[in-house]
Amino acid sequence: MSTKKSKGLARVQELYENRGSRAKELRAQGKKIIGYLCCLAPLEIMTAANLVPIRILGSVKEPITRADAHLETIACPYVRSCLDIALKGRYDYIDGLVVPHTCDNTYALYAIWASGIVPITPSYHHYIDGPHMTFPTSIEYFDVELGRFKKSLEEFTGKRITNQSLNKAIKLYNQNRALLRELYGLRRQDPPLLTGIEMTKILVACRVIPVEESNELIGEVIKEVKNRRDVPTKKTRLLVYGGEIDDIALIELIEESGANVVVDDHCLGVRSFWHDVQVNTNPIHSLSVRYLENVACPRTYKQREQGYKRDMDNRFGYLLEFAKEYDVKGVILYIIRYCDTFELDAPGVREYLQKAGYPVLHIEDDYSVTTIGQLKTRVQAFLEMIG
Amino acid sequence: MVEKSKTTAVHSSETVRKIRYFSKNMHDKAHKAKAEGRPVSYCMGGCAYHEILEAMGVTSVYTEHYGGVCAAYRVSEPYLIRAESEGYANNLCGYCRNTIGFDIVRQELGHMPEDAPDGGIPAPDMMLSCSAGCDHRYKWYQATGRYWDVPTFSYDVMQIPPFDTDIKATKAHVMKYQVEQFQRLIDFLEKLLDKKMDWDRLSFLVNRANESLWSWWSAYLLRKHHPSPMPSEDHFSAIVPAVFDLASRDTLSFYRELYGELQFKVDHNKGVLDEEKYRLLWAGGLPPWHTMGIINYFETFGAVFVMEASDYGPWPFFDIPKGMTNPLEILALRTWNQRVEYWDDAKKGCGHSRVQRILNRIEEYDIDGCMMHMTRSCRYQSLGQIHFNNLIQKHVKIPLMFMESDIVDLRDYNEADTKRRVDAFMETVDSFKRKGGRKAVRN
Lengths: 387, 443
Hints:
- With 387 residues, chain A is an alpha/beta fold.
- Chain A is built from 16 helices and 8 strands.
- In chain A, helix 3 links the parallel strand 1 and strand 2.
- In chain B, strands 2-1-3-4 form a 4-stranded parallel beta sheet, with helices on both faces.
- The termini of chain B are far apart.
- In chain B, helix 6 links the parallel strand 3 and strand 4.
- Chains A and B meet through helix 5, helix 6, helix 13 and helix 14 of A and helix 6, strand 4, helix 7, helix 15 and helix 16 of B.
């Protein structure tokens, strides 16, 4: 159990500001910490191995000064930022690194980070080879790869991971997902009960502590938010779609410009938690299905059964459902430069949402506060337009 | 407007000079197929489906190749700009932006753009992609679906495994999945075209393609000779048959002819240059199709790119196990071998198979200096080059330069700056060579 003193949103603020603090405490107590990237890393397997998975986050505030000696500047700036922080020794508290096969950028990052160049290279590192397709045989392939991942963790810890421990971890994460969905539900009303800024901080905080503590924390936040008197003011309701958003800078800019971000689909947001994992006698297969089929990351290919319109419905229909359910007036596409998968989808997504009647602002950005500031005029103009 | 001054490379191999006609012929065949109502597909390199498509009677149009052709003619810019004006980011793959832009322009005009090289490319009846290599390979045709609402299919093709993978543990299940994925492609085509696969023909085509690849590899072994009989500017043309038309008879003829020419040159001691002072390795990255003539610039210093270490092949021979007759298993095995080339050497050497390939070729081809081309719009081929260089230098001290531009987008290229870098690099190579050349580092 955590030795924390503060609770709820105050605790969220502490964790948001000192992201590695809890992991360092736990490590000092003998726990092993695993840093992971992306929404495709099956956290349940790490937790079942009695490890603490901590999401590797970048920093939009910090200039990249070390990574360029190892990784080209045409790489995704989020990935460069993660490597930069590692090279500066600030991920020295992780005992292991787990990178799922997401994209060309993370593939390159793994080869560099795991090669021994960072000041303290984790003793354990594993790349999870995930297929891009979602055929039944792709799921079977992923079953084998997750099995290999499980085995590698067993070798690392010297302890067997049983189906029972996996299902226990799955239940913990399903509870975590349910709590986050409940919290998101508090944003459906107008005005929402919590701001996009607060939600972004919560999403970060939940990813840098063990799942049990995350569940406890979200429970506290739900209670606190439900009873709050200082509710946000009524403003234009927006959905934000895109890649990694692990800082409030962009959301703050949007909300200060006169909007409430009431729902999202980004890497720390609903993409990472919306769907549960089935609890059954084959937990590895359940995890394969959930992570490969249900995580709506553009790196995962959905076969086009019929025409283009049906293909777009199949791939992005859920965005329209979110937009309707949360009654948004517009959508901001936040696309990090050099993220090819999002960049290739973005014009089609924009068109799809616009045809459904939602105004869209398509932003390409460098994952940096220096460039986010320049977006203010565009965001303000967009909000004026949709009024 | 087509650029008037010569920017393409001067080729030294007679066989390679025929490539422009070879490439044009591929596009002519596609136009003819379209006119005759035979199925035409947009295709991607690296998907390992040449023989399957040929056996099913599908004519391939390689949209990456067309991007390269447009770049060589320097007609890409309007297409790039058109794609970007639709919202496609200006750092996306140059091939992809070029051909998406071309598709948009063509549809807006209602006919082929007048200056489109080879009379353009025919409208696809289907689009077939895969997950091999880069992310664009499975994403591009999702995007192109906005412009061509035609049957589209994608399937998995194995990646180069990360450097620390236990490939002995993964091989069986990777191969099994690959065979299944090829079969799934065949199922898709059989249903779409309402015809059955001719398995005997497929076996014949796979065997012939293997022969083509082996002729290609055999020819390149001859480039170890001093002086080297063929440079990299020729290689980047010589890849066209294998990467975009592997299943054809013309391709086998091409590589046999190339082998014959290089053997003749070796026998008669005829090199690219009369005096080959420095031997260079193209150590990574795709070529600048818009300005292939820059490779000839190195030759003004007496330097020849005698070999490449790029993912465009060729690949070493591989044994087909006795009793393996299923053509899909042979295709999967070929793909596997291409992905894990130099794996065993890497285990004993630098630990990274792609870097090991560079280190091996430095030794085998007696290299004085290396160059890597960082192409702004290709993350798959460009990311890791700095890391590769860092690893290389831990094993051998050798001059290495980075050239920066793009595969297609001329706006990312600065000729004067590039030449200044080459000038400085060649001075370093010369200085190194005078002091005894590359030096192995004892680890």
